Amino acid sequence: MFDRYEGGEKALLVHVFFPQENDIEDLNEFEVLVTSAQIEILSIVTTSRNTPQAKYFVGVGKAQEIADAAKACQASVILVNHALTPAQERNLEQLCQCRVIDRTGLILDIFAQRARTHEGKLQVELAQLRHLSTRLVRGWTHLERQKGGIGLRGPGETQLETDRRLLRQRIQLILSRLAKVEKQREQGRQSRAKADIPTISLVGYTNAGKSTLFNSITGAQVYAADQLFATLDPTLRRIHIDDVGESVLVDTVGFIRHLPHDLVAAFKATLQETREATLLLHIIDAADNNLLDNIASVDEVLIDIEANDVPILQVMNKIDLLPDFAPRIDRDQEGKPIRVWLSAHQGIGIELLFLCLAELLARQIKNCQLSLPPDKAKLRSRFYQLQTVIAESIDDDGCFNLQIRIPQIEWNKLCKQAPELVHFVTKYN
């Protein structure tokens, strides 16, 4: 057995063109993925096939060509832009005498680099272990415990079986910890549902600008960068929307073509925020030449995670990269907003997005005038916190005369907290 690699900073890329797929864009995206993983691309080997070959995925001759190219450029790892079976991965490693990683393994490696929170690290580790469980090989024969002879007879468990048992135990431990996290998230969702607080979830293709838009709306300092999978850990922030009141905005992980199923399963607790959302904001890079393919890829993932029934508002981001383009709102035949064009980076069109959110999430609104005595300043302060005061004046008795516009739900909450509030209403508009 050769020594498995430890570095992997210099790579040879392999891509197979299949007639039924749009492979040029897929190859370009793979190069961006490799760069995002901070790996240097030494060379790219491409070939064409109608179907994958069973042993090497590519043909025997092309496999030998890949081995020669890896040796010539001294690559420490070969990255294949396809999902390989464990057997194909091992066969290529034995032929090329260096580490072989498929597309799924590369994405998992990027996720491992970007995970920051405890939950994110657990989710990535779970996905990695599930991926690794089918790729354990007999590379530990010096630790074998089924050999014959005096002093060599052991408990009858091979090292491979030991590895698999330890792997299963670790997976079960991670699943139990993630179950606690999911329970905590579920409690938070139930609390928001009970309080009737809308949840708005940002979804979209990776690097479409979700975190930049999130920061622009909320003023948060979420990490945002021009790279794939800059965001892994979901972030929640409260925002205020006119005629809606308090809402929760959720920044989520970006989607990508051929998203590994292990990742979808591992990020179940995170993706639950998308399934349970009141409204999805589908962030789209309007300047991307492959935006239609990216939209289709996101729609496929939404179907996979059973979130395709949640109402969607498309947000065409990065219009500052388009020539002579101004922010606008696209509406359907009923006048309902279906798409808004803006630039999160430049802060252009954000007010149009809030206008769309107010229309889509608007609830019954109550307009009235109040006359609050001086000792009810705390109640007056609450109306200002909810941003519901339209006008105010103070009379000779020191009473606060307020003209308010407030969602009916918020009004009902205040009436429960301060039943005397109804006695201060002087006029309904």
From TrEMBL:
<dbReference type="InterPro" id="IPR042108">
    <property type="entry name" value="GTPase_HflX_N_sf"/>
</dbReference>
<comment type="subunit">
    <text>Monomer. Associates with the 50S ribosomal subunit.</text>
</comment>
<dbReference type="Pfam" id="PF16360">
    <property type="entry name" value="GTP-bdg_M"/>
</dbReference>
<dbReference type="InterPro" id="IPR006073">
    <property type="entry name" value="GTP-bd"/>
</dbReference>
<dbReference type="GO" id="GO:0043022">
    <property type="term" value="F:ribosome binding"/>
</dbReference>
<dbReference type="InterPro" id="IPR027417">
    <property type="entry name" value="P-loop_NTPase"/>
</dbReference>
<feature type="binding site">
    <location>
        <position position="231"/>
    </location>
    <ligand>
        <name>Mg(2+)</name>
    </ligand>
</feature>
<dbReference type="GO" id="GO:0046872">
    <property type="term" value="F:metal ion binding"/>
</dbReference>
<dbReference type="GO" id="GO:0097216">
    <property type="term" value="F:guanosine tetraphosphate binding"/>
</dbReference>
<keyword id="KW-0342">GTP-binding</keyword>
<keyword id="KW-0963">Cytoplasm</keyword>
<feature type="binding site">
    <location>
        <begin position="317"/>
        <end position="320"/>
    </location>
    <ligand>
        <name>GTP</name>
    </ligand>
</feature>
<protein>
    <recommendedName>
        <fullName>GTPase HflX</fullName>
    </recommendedName>
</protein>
<feature type="binding site">
    <location>
        <begin position="251"/>
        <end position="254"/>
    </location>
    <ligand>
        <name>GTP</name>
    </ligand>
</feature>
<dbReference type="InterPro" id="IPR032305">
    <property type="entry name" value="GTP-bd_M"/>
</dbReference>
<keyword id="KW-0460">Magnesium</keyword>
<dbReference type="Pfam" id="PF01926">
    <property type="entry name" value="MMR_HSR1"/>
</dbReference>
<feature type="binding site">
    <location>
        <begin position="204"/>
        <end position="211"/>
    </location>
    <ligand>
        <name>GTP</name>
    </ligand>
</feature>
<keyword id="KW-0547">Nucleotide-binding</keyword>
<keyword id="KW-0479">Metal-binding</keyword>
<feature type="binding site">
    <location>
        <begin position="343"/>
        <end position="345"/>
    </location>
    <ligand>
        <name>GTP</name>
    </ligand>
</feature>
<feature type="binding site">
    <location>
        <position position="211"/>
    </location>
    <ligand>
        <name>Mg(2+)</name>
    </ligand>
</feature>
<dbReference type="GO" id="GO:0003924">
    <property type="term" value="F:GTPase activity"/>
</dbReference>
<dbReference type="InterPro" id="IPR016496">
    <property type="entry name" value="GTPase_HflX"/>
</dbReference>
<dbReference type="GO" id="GO:0005525">
    <property type="term" value="F:GTP binding"/>
</dbReference>
<dbReference type="InterPro" id="IPR025121">
    <property type="entry name" value="GTPase_HflX_N"/>
</dbReference>
<feature type="domain" description="Hflx-type G">
    <location>
        <begin position="198"/>
        <end position="365"/>
    </location>
</feature>
<comment type="function">
    <text>GTPase that associates with the 50S ribosomal subunit and may have a role during protein synthesis or ribosome biogenesis.</text>
</comment>
<dbReference type="InterPro" id="IPR035647">
    <property type="entry name" value="EFG_III/V"/>
</dbReference>
<dbReference type="Pfam" id="PF13167">
    <property type="entry name" value="GTP-bdg_N"/>
</dbReference>
<feature type="binding site">
    <location>
        <begin position="229"/>
        <end position="233"/>
    </location>
    <ligand>
        <name>GTP</name>
    </ligand>
</feature>
<comment type="similarity">
    <text>Belongs to the TRAFAC class OBG-HflX-like GTPase superfamily. HflX GTPase family.</text>
</comment>
<dbReference type="InterPro" id="IPR030394">
    <property type="entry name" value="G_HFLX_dom"/>
</dbReference>
<dbReference type="GO" id="GO:0005737">
    <property type="term" value="C:cytoplasm"/>
</dbReference>
